[in-house]
Amino acid sequence: MHSHRSSLGTLLHHVHVSGPLSRAELGERMGVNRSTVLALTSELVAAGLVREEPPTGVTRAGRPSLVVRPESERVFVIAFDVAVDRLTAARVGLGGQILDRRSAARSRAGADLETVVRQLAGMGRELIAAVPAGSMCAGLGAAYCGMIRPGDGMVRYGPEMGWVDQAFGAELARALGLGLPVAVGNEAHLGALAEFERGAGRGSPDLVYLHGDVGVGGGILVGGKLLGGDAGYGCEVGHMLVNPTDGRPCLCGSRGCLEAETGEYALLAAAGRAGTDPERNAGLGRDAVGQAGAEIGWEAVRAVVRDAAGGDRDAAAAVAEIGDWLGIGVANLINLFNPAVVIFGGMLRDVYGAAAPQVSARIARHAMPVSRERAKLRVSELAGDATLIGAADLGFAALLNDPLSPSRTPRLTAGIRR
């Protein structure tokens, strides 16, 4: 029985990640015969999770293999992404398609659990109210910009907003009132998994994903598995020391961390747009920094990058400086983990696009040739949706693990109907 359920989950996972696949393709991927694929798909069709259709555009003679498609419009999760500046909620269909979304600005005003939960729950209820009749909610997943305790969605530490031991997952589940738990993960960890499954890391089970969101987060996959560490708080690459001599102060209490040297405030300060000096930034609330002077946020970072490309000397020097430190950090990661791919996501997608020469030069200088010779540097293919898609896959995990679980069937069939 366990093997049969595992096979159902494997087939559904293939369709979820790769989209429509023929019975023949599924048989090849799973190493089973066509009659086994037929039996498995029949069960998933009966459960309302997939459907079978003739392939489109087939002209060759003979009976073509039916195509198995995920029921993307009917089976969905609600996914949430909590970034420093923005809150996003989306209805994501089986297969990874974003069907509907809501978003709102988030103030940099410090610990704001109640506000975040209230806003996200409101957006979640709006999304659910708009689902087609007969739809099924398979789960809830959330990405958060901080260190998450595995299992219960507790935010142990969120330095950018001062969150310490905040029961985010439990509070959001309670506010939504759907009778479903909210699975919560670190945004960069989830972004790494999403890029591996669907983006720039496809086919590369050993990868490093770097995510910029004011600070810098990281996700490292080894053999296709997330490197979580002893307690689940691994891959905090943003707090890897790169400049111990005269480094910028970091919110973690140290100096010269990768995120202190390459994050949003470092770039804006280097370009003369920070509003206050970096020393003072570390002691101010994020709203206070913004009020003190220049614009902050992703658009401010993009403005520096854009101005650098347009010939602004200060902006160009700032991009080069940040690229230099970023390259040192990446060289360290290449030496440590020998990844096939290093992916730049979030704000770093824009920064790397402008600072690639400096990053590559540092890697050439500091990374061992045998480690770097195969490493590819890429920007996120999922772009701003990497962490949201990762959160959605977290919400789908239980369904994909055991699609026909008796304990889950009532939730699915009782789902959200209108």
Question: What would you say about this model in short?
Answer:
This protein is 44% helix and 21% strand. It is α/β, with parallel strands linked by helices and 418 residues long.
Distance between the termini: 35 Å
CATH architecture of the largest domain: 2-Layer Sandwich
Largest sheet: 5 strands, mixed
CATH superfamily of the largest domain: ATPase, nucleotide binding domain
Instruction: Give the domain tally.
Output: 3
Instruction: Determine the mean pLDDT.
Output: 90
Structural class: alpha/beta
Shape, please? globular
DSSP summary, beta strand count:
16
Taking strands numbered 1, 2, ... along the chain, how are they ordered across the largest sheet?
Answer: 6-5-4-7-11
Descriptive notes:
The protein is of the alpha/beta class and 418 residues long. The chain has 3 domains: 2-70, Arc Repressor Mutant, subunit A (Orthogonal Bundle); 75-190 and 386-414, Nucleotidyltransferase, domain 5 (2-Layer Sandwich), CATH 3.30.420.40; 202-380, 2-Layer Sandwich (Nucleotidyltransferase, domain 5). It has 16 helices and 16 strands. The chain is globular and about 65 Å long. The protein starts with a helix and ends with a helix.
